[in-house]
Each structure stands twice: as structure tokens, then as C-alpha cells.
Write a structure and sequence with these properties.
It is a single chain. This protein is mostly helical. It has one domain: Tetracycline Repressor, domain 2. It is about 75% helix and about 0% strand. The chain has helices spanning about 5-15, 30-40, 45-60, 70-75, 80-85, 90-115, 120-135, 140-150, 155-165, 165-180, 190-210, 215-235. Helix 6 packs parallel to helix 9 (about 155-165), helix 7 runs antiparallel to helix 10 (about 165-180) and helix 8 runs antiparallel to helix 9.
Length: about 240
């Protein structure tokens, strides 16, 4: 594990705990999402069912058009079962977002644990593929549209998504550059912003505009590799 890894773990834990106190729910959204991302636990069967129903309902009706009462009636799940785990519609929506990103968060943590044995090129390629695989998926795109729409009314919903998604990717890439600090003369935070922008902007725009279908793993790799190569040539001392 790189020397920066404990700092990253503490940073992510602080951000997780800052997401809310989870009052009114059995486990608390922040604790629930942290356990998902760390791989320590799976949702209970009923909890999983509630999240499945809520995800589909939000995607069909939008956040503003959804209500827990209507969700319960249409799904056959009792309102009491929903409130047993989540105290409000917003808390339920945040849990839906977090569950969708849990596998991605776990992948980022696995990469950082293995990063000490990887070249800079391999580490950047891996994190870029991880990010693109998530942000280009149909389900992720649909949820992002809901998040951005609701963030206009409730900024903390957008801030919640940013903390557990984009900000963690940025932090992870920054830690990779920090562990290779001797190979470049640039600020790791600036390099991270430049790299993620180069990786994501075109493919994400093409997906949002329905110009391309969800890319396969091979197609993602084909897009990522030349960008990583160009980035390294441009920014990192001729490497």
C-alpha cells in the first residue's frame, strides 16, 4: 500500500460521515453506503427489495413525481417496510444513488490497494476504464439526469452524488499521481482534473446525445489507451 493510502482512506471515511446523520433510519444512509462500498455487507433481502422497487420507480416517475405512498401501493411493499429502512423520500433516493455506485467505489479501493505493483500507465488505464464503464451505462445516465434535475431544487442531493462518485474518482487519480510524483513536475490535483476531463468528456457527451450505444469493455479500452498514451507523453517528462 502506498504511503498516501491511509490518508485517502481517512479522507473517504470523513466524507462518508459528512453525508448525514441518518436519523430516522435503522442503519443510516452514510453507514449503509459505506458498508456497501467496502464490501462488508449486502443489503438485507427486504432492504434490497425496497431499493430495487425505489430505483425502478424513480426512473419511471422522476424524483419530484415519486411518493413513498404511491411507491408502496404500486409495488405491494408496505409503507412501513420502506420507512423501516429510510425515513424520507430524499434519504431513499440517496441510498439508491449510493447502491448504484457501490461497485464502482469498491473497484476504486481495489485499484488503490494494488497500485503499488502497477506502472503509472497501467494504473491510469485501469481507473479510466473503471470510470467510463460506470458513467456510460444506461442506468447511470438515467439516474444522473434525475440527480441533476433534483439538484436544482435540493443542492444537497447533487452534493451527495458528487461526494460518493466524481469526487472519489478525482481523489483516487490524485493519489495515483502523488505516488508517481518524481515522474512529473505538475501538481497532482491539477493533473487529476486534466486527466479525467480528457478521459470522459467526449464519450460521455456522445452517450448523452445518443450518438453511440453503451460501449463494450473492448471499446472502452480502445478509447482509453490512446488518451493515456497521449497524456503521458504530453505531461510526464517524455514517458
Amino acid at each position: 500500500m502506498s504511503s498516501a493510502q491511509p490518508e485517502l482512506k481517512e479522507s473517504l471515511q470523513r466524507r462518508d460521515s459528512a453525508e448525514g446523520d441518518g436519523s430516522g433510519s435503522a442503519r443510516g444512509v452514510a453507514a449503509l453506503l459505506h458498508s456497501f462500498a467496502e464490501g462488508r455487507s449486502r443489503p438485507k433481502a427486504k432492504e434490497q427489495e425496497v431499493l430495487d422497487v425505489a430505483t425502478d420507480y424513480f426512473l419511471e416517475h422522476g424524483y419530484e413525481g415519486a411518493s413513498i405512498n404511491a411507491m408502496a401501493r404500486s409495488s405491494g411493499i408496505s409503507k412501513e417496510s420502506i420507512y423501516r429502512y429510510f425515513s424520507s423520500k430524499k434519504q431513499l433516493f440517496e441510498a439508491v444513488i449510493g447502491r448504484e455506485l457501490a461497485e464502482y467505489q469498491a473497484g476504486v479501493r481495489r485499484l488503490l490497494s494494488a497500485e503499488k505493483t502497477m506502472s503509472l500507465r497501467d494504473a491510469l488505464t485501469t481507473i479510466a476504464e473503471t470510470v467510463l464503464a460506470v458513467v456510460t451505462a444506461d442506468r447511470t445516465l438515467a439516474l444522473r439526469r434525475l440527480i441533476f434535475e433534483e439538484a436544482r431544487r435540493s443542492p444537497d442531493v447533487g452534493q451527495h452524488y458528487h461526494r460518493i462518485g466524481p469526487e472519489q474518482a478525482l481523489t483516487a487519480v490524485e493519489e495515483i499521481f502523488k505516488s508517481h510524483r518524481t515522474e512529473n513536475d505538475f501538481d497532482p490535483a491539477a493533473l487529476s482534473r486534466h486527466f479525467l476531463a480528457m478521459i470522459s468528456w467526449r464519450t460521455l457527451l456522445e452517450r448523452e446525445c445518443a450518438l453511440i450505444p453503451p460501449p463494450t469493455r473492448a471499446e472502452i479500452r480502445a478509447r482509453v489507451e490512446p488518451i493515456v498514451n497521449d497524456f503521458i507523453k504530453a505531461f510526464l517528462k517524455g514517458r
